[in-house]
Amino acid sequence: MDLEEQEGTETVGERCEECGARLTAQELAVALESGGPALCTVHATEAEALPDEPPDV
Ligand SMILES: [Zn+2]
User: Fold this and answer.
1) Which domain of life is it from (predicted)?
2) Coil, strand, or helix at residue 15?
3) Higher confidence at residue 11 or residue 21?
4) What is the predicted pLDDT for the residue at 15?
5) Which of 22, 25, 33, 57 falls between 20 and 30 A from 39, CA-CA?
6) Ligand 1 centroid from CA 30, angstroms
7) Residues with CB under 5 A from ligand 1 (ion)
8) In angstroms, rounded to a whole number, what is the distance separating the alpha carbons of residues 11 and 9?
9) Short-list 12, 9, 57, CA closest to 39
């Protein structure tokens, strides 16, 4: 695959998986550190407040 940066190409982790908001560098860092899904500050906070969600069965 071509690894060149392409404007407009959506990359996993670049946007909030809940609302699609573009993540800031800090939000991206948090997502990477936690190994969790890419979430904006709002949804990352909500996710933390929730108990572990069981995987879809
Ligand atoms: Zn969000």
Assistant:
1) Bacteria
2) strand
3) 21
4) 92
5) 57
6) 14
7) 16, 18-19, 21, 40, 43
8) 6
9) 12
Cα dist from 51 to 11, 13, 41, whole Å: 27, 22, 17
**Cα-to-centroid distance, 12 and ligand 1 (Å):** 14
Ligand 1 centre distance from Cα of residue 9 (Å) = 19
Report the pLDDT value the prediction gives residue 1, as an integer from 0 to 100: 65
* Distance in Å, CA 7 to ligand 1 centroid: 21
Percentage of the chain exceeding pLDDT 90:
28
Structure tokens at 56: 């879809």
Nearest to 9 by CA among 1, 43, 46, 29: 1
What's the gap in Å between 11 CA and the centre of ligand 1?
A: 16
Which tokens sit at 28? 């991206």
Maximum alpha-carbon separation in the chain: 39
